[in-house]
Backbone:
């Protein structure tokens, strides 16, 4: 195989079956990560640096600075220098002479701290690194202990195990930064949910509740600090070996298996032997062997070093002792892990919608025992936001790097249980964060295909899904292009932005001139209502006649569930405003099934989505046509209608799905519910609202809400943002619900003046 750069040679390491004392049928394998150019951390260095270059946080030619005494230093040197970056390594006296020689030969600047501080060698290195960064603010620090791109790098390792071996039962790995074992485990559990993860630590390490004892001789595992990337929830069992036991196991590995490796691999080997003896027939156990032995020739494999450091004087067990969690250990012991007592259960919300379910979602997360955190650029945008309901973190939510930096700096990985949003504009940001953190969520590609309506049209077209004819216009379009688009789809046609929400800027156009004029209006908006850059692209599509519905689906790894179908009433145009929803839609069983099947096929086409989706369709003589796929729960209070009609709290289930909790979507009741929105009949200042209190007392009326402030200017709605409020009713049948909506809607009167309201205007 030919590579164009040395960093392309990273990965695809051998998987070797070991000869061990185990019951018949037990298979034990070593994943030889030591066969990477320098070792396992080559994967981490490559992934972090390439991601940083993609996001622009590592600029061309900028310095890369890292704290390491071993394989991470070599990985950063390998990849950083191959990509043309100066590399500065901060290390400590434990670094072996061979690694030091390699780093200098690769052209790195190596900075060796002389004494440890109160947090050991690691703390001393970080102090020195901070001073280096202060002198060079443009330098990039990979931050292997806190950067989620560290564990994310091991998704490739997990894929290699599955490709080469298939399903496994137990994964064993040394724990230092938390990246390799946690990242590989998290990736494997997407297809192997019952996988058991076993961590290997050293005596004197503080990672799993033991007292820190600086001066331990092992390198590559253990820590005096608690790395943010370590997620102890993923690990069911932990082993501790002292220096004597780890060094002896490493020598045994070379003699018994002919694998010349470092002490991390030796410790994993010893634990593999123990697990092999305890495994049931038919089990497959895989251990990750991180580094080769050449760096340890003067330590682990040197009898004089043993004598000088009195390694042989330490106790050494040949079998493991089971101890209780929290027991202070001095030699090889194992314990079942327990969640850290102080661990939080954060559910991160990236912004929120400003009406409907946004604030309710925060309260629902709290009710489920989660700790909701609202990441927002502007808390003042949200009426009803109560700091008692959530933690509020102000950051730049329109910046992917800003969001990542905030999450990385403020939260430990094991404290984050999920990420979500109730705002359509931030669904892509949530997908990106979920993917970065290895959390449940939709794939970024599927979300991108749904959020960009032109891309969705192209995707559905390639797979033959029934939808409107379409054409796409951009900033270069003139009248000839607009006329061509109109001919392609037919007149009248619908013109809309490819990436907006709530029917904003959606218009029915009768001529090519109208198509061009509206295209220019759309393209004039460089940003949307949330300050995000628009796609600067316009979708021209066929105007389909026929009743409109939305199919509410819910996707999990177990499959897609249809929660129900919503009947929608929409104004005639040229603007399309949804003014009534009814759930469940009164459809014949065969028609409902046909609509569900059309939506299932469309969801399969766009790719894996997670949680609730809201797909708009029209029933045409040629069958259901897909209008839009929204990778989020329905808006317009449809989740509340579902709750009233079927007893299913869709918002709660969405939060459960985001947090990796069990979801329950089976209907508990068989009722009906509907919503009617208030729309202004003419433009002017809203002078008064009458009858709302009386409407609330009518039978079957669940809610009457007015959202337009008195004194504000109102006008006939052009989109969902122009609605004045709503009434929700429930009943035993669709006709019953319609009657109650009619009565309540007629009871409420909006008094709209012909001039701007004055401070003396009041409402009755």
Residues:
């Amino acid at each position: 195989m030919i590579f164009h750069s040395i960093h392309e040679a990273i990965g695809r390491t051998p998987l070797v079956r070991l000869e061990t004392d185990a019951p018949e049928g037990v298979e034990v394998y070593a994943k030889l990560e030591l066969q990477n150019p320098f070792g396992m951390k080559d994967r981490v260095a490559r992934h972090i640096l390439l991601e940083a270059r993609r996001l622009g946080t590592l600029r061309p030619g900028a310095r890369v600075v890292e704290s390491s005494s071993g394989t991470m230093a070599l990985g950063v040197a390998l990849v950083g220098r191959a990509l043309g970056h100066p590399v500065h390594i901060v290390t400590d006296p434990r670094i072996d002479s061979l690694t030091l020689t390699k780093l200098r030969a690769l052209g790195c600047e190596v900075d060796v701290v002389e004494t440890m501080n109160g947090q050991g060698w690691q703390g001393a290195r970080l102090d020195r690194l901070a001073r280096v960064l202060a002198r060079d603010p443009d330098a990039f620090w990979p931050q292997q202990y806190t950067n989620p791109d560290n564990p994310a790098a091991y998704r490739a390792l997990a894929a290699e195990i599955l490709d080469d071996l298939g399903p496994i039962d137990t994964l064993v790995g040394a724990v230092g930064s938390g990246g390799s074992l946690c990242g590989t485990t998290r990736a494997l559990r997407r297809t192997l949910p019952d996988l058991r993860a076993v961590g290997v630590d050293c005596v004197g390490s503080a990672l799993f509740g033991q007292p820190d004892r600086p001066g331990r001789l092992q390198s590559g595992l253990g820590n005096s600090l608690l790395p943010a990337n370590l997620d102890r929830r993923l690990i069911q069992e932990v082993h501790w070996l002292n220096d004597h036991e780890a060094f002896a196991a490493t020598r045994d590995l070379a003699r018994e298996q002919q694998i010349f490796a470092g002490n991390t691999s030796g410790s994993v080997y010893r634990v593999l032997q123990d697990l092999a003896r305890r495994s049931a027939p038919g089990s497959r156990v895989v251990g990750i062997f991180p580094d080769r032995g050449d760096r340890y020739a003067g330590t682990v494999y040197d009898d004089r070093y043993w004598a000088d450091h009195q390694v042989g004087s330490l106790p050494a067990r040949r079998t493991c002792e089971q101890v209780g969690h929290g027991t202070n250990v001095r030699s090889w012991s194992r314990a079942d892990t327990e969640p850290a007592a102080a661990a939080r259960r954060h559910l991160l919300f990236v912004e929120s919608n400003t009406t409907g379910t946004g604030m309710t979602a925060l309260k629902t997360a709290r009710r489920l025992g989660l700790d909701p955190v609202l990441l927002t650029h502007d808390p003042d945008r949200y009426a009803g936001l109560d700091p008692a309901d959530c933690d509020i973190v102000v950051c730049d939510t329109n910046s992917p790097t800003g969001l990542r930096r905030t999450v990385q700096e403020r939260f430990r990985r094991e404290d984050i249980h999920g990420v979500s949003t109730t705002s359509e504009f931030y669904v892509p940001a949530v997908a990106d964060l979920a993917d970065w953190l290895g959390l449940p969520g939709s794939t970024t590609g599927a979300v991108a295909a749904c959020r960009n309506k032109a891309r969705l049209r192209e995707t559905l077209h390639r797979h033959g899904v029934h939808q409107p004819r379409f054409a796409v216009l951009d900033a270069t379009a003139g009248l000839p292009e607009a006329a061509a688009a109109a001919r392609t789809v037919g007149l009248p046609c619908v013109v809309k932005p490819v990436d907006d929400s709530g029917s904003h800027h959606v218009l029915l156009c009768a001529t090519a001139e109208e198509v061009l004029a509206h295209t220019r209006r759309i393209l004039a908006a460089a940003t949307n209502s949330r300050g995000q850059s628009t796609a600067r692209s316009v979708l021209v599509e066929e105007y389909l006649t026929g009743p409109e519905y939305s199919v509410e689906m819910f996707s999990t790894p177990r499959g897609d569930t249809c929660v129900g179908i919503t009947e929608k009433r929409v104004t005639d145009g040229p603007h399309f405003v949804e003014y009534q929803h009814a759930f469940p839609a009164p459809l014949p069983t065969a028609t409902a099934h046909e609509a569900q099947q059309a939506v299932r096929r469309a969801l399969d086409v766009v790719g894996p989505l997670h949680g609730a989706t809201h797909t708009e369709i029209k029933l045409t003589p040629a069958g259901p046509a897909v209008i839009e796929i929204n990778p989020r729960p329905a808006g317009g209070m449809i989740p509340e209608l579902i709750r009233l009609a079927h007893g299913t709290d869709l918002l709660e289930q969405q939060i459960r799905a985001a947090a990796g909790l069990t979801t329950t979507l089976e209907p508990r009741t068989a009722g009906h519910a509907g919503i009617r929105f208030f729309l202004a009949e003419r433009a002017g200042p809203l002078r008064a609202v009458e009858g709302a209190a009386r409407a609330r007392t009518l039978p079957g009326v669940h809610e009457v809400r007015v959202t337009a402030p008195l004194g504000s200017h109102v006008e006939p709605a052009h989109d969902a943002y122009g609605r004045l409020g709503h009434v929700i009713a429930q009943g035993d049948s669709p006709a019953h619900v319609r009657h109650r909506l009619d009565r309540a809607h007629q009871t409420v009167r909006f008094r709209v003046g012909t001039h701007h309201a004055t401070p003396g205007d009041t409402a009755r």
Q: What stands out?
A: Confidence is low (pLDDT under 50) at residues 757-764.
